[in-house]
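Wait, mind explaining this?

_____
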Amino acid sequence: MESAAIIDTGNLTKQYGKQTAVKDLSFKVAEGEIFGFLGPNGAGKTTTILMLLGLTRPSAGYARVCGMDPLRDAREVKRIVGYLPENVGFYGDLNAFQSLHYIADLNGIPLRKRLERIGRSLETVGLTEHSQKKVGTFSRGMKQRLGIAEVLLKEPRVMILDEPTLGLDPEGALQLIELIQSLNRERKITVLISSHNLSQVQKISHKVGIMIKGAMVASGSIDSLAKASFGVADGGYSLEEIYMKYFQEG
C-alpha cells in the first residue's frame, strides 16, 4: 500500500508580473521518502520551496504539507517542518549550545524540554564536543551540521534541505549525506533535498523530480525515469545521464 502524501501540490503556479516562476506544478512526496528536487538555477525550485513553507503566496493551485495549507495553517506547518537554507545564518559570537538555545526559545520549546533536545541534537550531528566553541570559528561543514541540529530541535516530520553539501569537501559531504540517510531511516523523517550534486541525490533518494523552466518535466524513481528516457530500468544509466536528457529536451 502506498504511503500517504506528506507533500502534495496541484497545479501550483507562481507569477511575478508577467514572469511565471512555477507553472502548473503537481507532485507528491510520500511519508518516509527522500525526494530529490532537481533542476538548473532559475528552474523554480526555490520558489516552490517558499510556497511549501508558506513564505510566498501561490498565484494559482495549491500546496499541502501534512495535509495542511502552509499559508492558512502557517504556525502548525512551521512547527513540524524543518528548513535548512543554502546559506545558514548564525551569530558568530555565540557558541553552538547558545545558538541552539536561542533557536529553541524562538520556537517556543519549553525550558524543561530544551536542554534535552539540544543535547540530543548536538549528539546526533556529532558536535557535542564542540558545543562551547563559537560558531564563528566553525568550518562550513560544522555549520551545516549545526543547521541540521537546529532543524532537529523541532522534532520535525519533514525536512527541506537546499543544497546542504554545497562547498563541502568530499569527506564532509559524505558525512552529511549519511546523516540525512540515518535521520530518514531511524526517525522516519520525510526529506525533500534540492541539490546540483546528482551523484549524491542518486545515492540517497527514493524518488526524484526534475524541474525545467518552472515546470516538472519528470517525477518518479530513478529506474522509472531511466525506462521512460532510454527504455531500460536495469540501473545502466546514471541520474546525471537521465537529467541531461530531460535538460536538453527541455
Notes: The radius of gyration is 18 Å. The beta strands are 5-16, 19-30, 34-38, 60-65, 81-84, 158-162, 190-194, 207-212, 215-220.
